[in-house]
Amino acid sequence: HGLARWLAQLPSRAGLRLRIGLNLPPDFRDRRPEIVFFNRFEYQLALNLLRAACPGLKWYAETRELAEIFHPLGAVGVERKRLPTRVIDRLRPAPPPDRPRTCFLPGEVRPEKGAEFLINSVVAIAAQQPSWLGKLRFRFTSMTLLPHVADFLRQYPVLFELLPDTSMDRNRYWALLHDADLVSCCYEPANYVARASGIFLESLAIGKPVLVSPGTSIAAEAVAHGNSYALPVTYGDVGSFAAALDAFMQQPEAFAAAATAVSAEYRRQLEPATFFDWLLADDAA
After folding, report:
1. pLDDT per residue over 226-260, tens digit each?
2. CB-based contacts of 159: which residues, under 8 Å, 6+ apart?
3. Which is nearest to 83 in space by CA: 199, 198, 204?
4. Which 3 state secondary structure label does DSSP give 114?
5. What are the DSSP calls for the chain, one per residue?
6. Measured distance CA(270)–CA(72) in Å, rounded
7. Largest CB tally within 10 Å, which of 28, 60, 163, 243?
8. What pTM did the predictor assign?
9. Cβ contacts of residue 27 below 8 Å, gap of 6+?
10. Are 259 and 265 in contact (CB under 8 A)?
11. CA–CA separation, 256 and 179 (whole Å)
12. Rounded to an integer, what distance in angstroms lies between the CA atom of residue 141 and that of residue 184?
């Protein structure tokens, strides 16, 4: 609304081009019906005001699902564009090949990120003594980890590796991502039915296979690629999680090779030059 008011105050809008990213749906982090209804109303009003204020307006979103959500709210012709980031290649030597493999859960340990599901599932599966026990570790960073969660993880040092990071710069993040053999993007579907995941995209940009949850836009993209680099895990289903881990540990090199095969395409999508070439392109071209 503020942007629409500012545009209306300009002495002239001739030749002005505006690009707006639509990446947070009306139910972002709060799915109460009254909140979603209010957010949809506010979006619809703002998008219509912006469309009227600037004829040279284009919309973009990171996923097809987001485009479909915003279309009835007034965003017509939404283009699919990734938010750019600079992919950093390996900064240090690769870990020794005989070490336990690592499943990495980057970012904040939040329920919608699948942290509680992953932790409780791993503990339950480990009690059954699976073949991968001792050959696969689950790594967490602890930037926002609650003390009782950290204490719980420390009870299982064979399974969980808790890194004492109170901050995370880009180099540290990419170094940890490179060290991973498998990255968990097993997110709660209700929160990721339309949203994109930077971790998912960045993992594939460096050839890391991923865990994904059916019912998310992330899993839909993996299915479109034949699921060759992604292991589906039904969110909340411990048996499904166990089957995915068993499948990965039986042929980790095959999943890594499949992820590497698509890494160049994901790098291209994330390349800042790709985004800014589109952003600054002459509409008449």
Report:
1. 668 999 999 999 999 999 999 999 999 999 999 99
2. 122, 123, 126, 137, 138
3. 198
4. coil
5. -HHHHHHHHSS--TT--EEEE--S-TTTT---HHHHHHHHHHHHHHHHHHHHH-TTEEEEESSHHHHHHHGGGT--S-EE-PPP-------SPPPPTTSPEEEEE-S---GGGTHHHHHHHHHHHHTT--TTTTTEEEEEE-SS--HHHHHHHHT-TTTEEEE--S---HHHHHHHHHH-SEEEE---HHHHSS---HHHHHHHHTT--EEE-TTSHHHHHHHHTTTTTEEE--TT-HHHHHHHHHHHHH-HHHHHHHHHHHHHHHHHHH-HHHHHHHHT--TT-
6. 28
7. 60
8. 0.89
9. 35, 36, 39
10. no
11. 13
12. 13
Question: CA torsion sign, 81 to 222 to 194 to 77?
Answer: positive
Q: What is the DSSP letter of 82?
A: P
Query: Are residues 81 and 101 in contact, defined by beta-carbon separation less than 8 angstroms?
Result: no
Q: Which two tokens stand for residue 179?
A: 């060290």
Beta strands, E only, 70-131: 79-80, 101-105
Cα distances (Å, whole numbers) of residue 238 to 199, 228, 245, 260 = 23, 22, 11, 28
Nearest-angstrom CA–CA distance, 94 and 8: 55
Mean pLDDT of 101-112: 86
**Type of residue numbered 230:** A
Provide the 8-state DSSP code for 71: G
Distance CA 198, CA 221 (A): 13
Q: In whole numbers, what is the pLDDT of the chain averaged over residues?
A: 90
Mean pLDDT of 171-180: 93
Q: What is the pLDDT of residues 47-56, one digit of tens each?
A: 999 998 888 8
Residue with tokens 């940890």: 176
